[in-house]
Amino acid sequence: MSTVPDVLKGRLMLLQNENPSLTFEDDQMDTGDGIRGLIRVIDGDDTIALEFIEPEEMWQEPDVLEEYVETAEEGVGVTVIVPNGEKEDAREEIGEDGGIRVLGYDEIGSSLRYPR
Fold this sequence. Notes:
Elements: H1 4-18, E1 23-31, E2 34-43, E3 46-53, H2 62-73, E4 77-82, H3 87-94, E5 100-104
Parallel strand pairs: 3-4, 4-5
Antiparallel strand pairs: 1-2, 2-3
């Protein structure tokens, strides 16, 4: 079973290899429901995308969903990475509308390229 820190580390390495001209910062936040991971994708001085790596069921929390939507509305790309068993439900709930992309833990090798 994959953990958020493992997925964060793997995804960060893949993103850095695919986008050498961009900067990436990672962070982990310990919550009552588990550890959340975050990757900031930075082009120069601008944050162009955030990638949220979520523990089980975290993406369903109203405050968390609002965070995704508000980030996307600010023009920042949003990727939400959830446990494999939850990705279809997350895709249905969050949708691809508004620039929010949903991946499962097993898909961290996809959607790696960020435009400059």
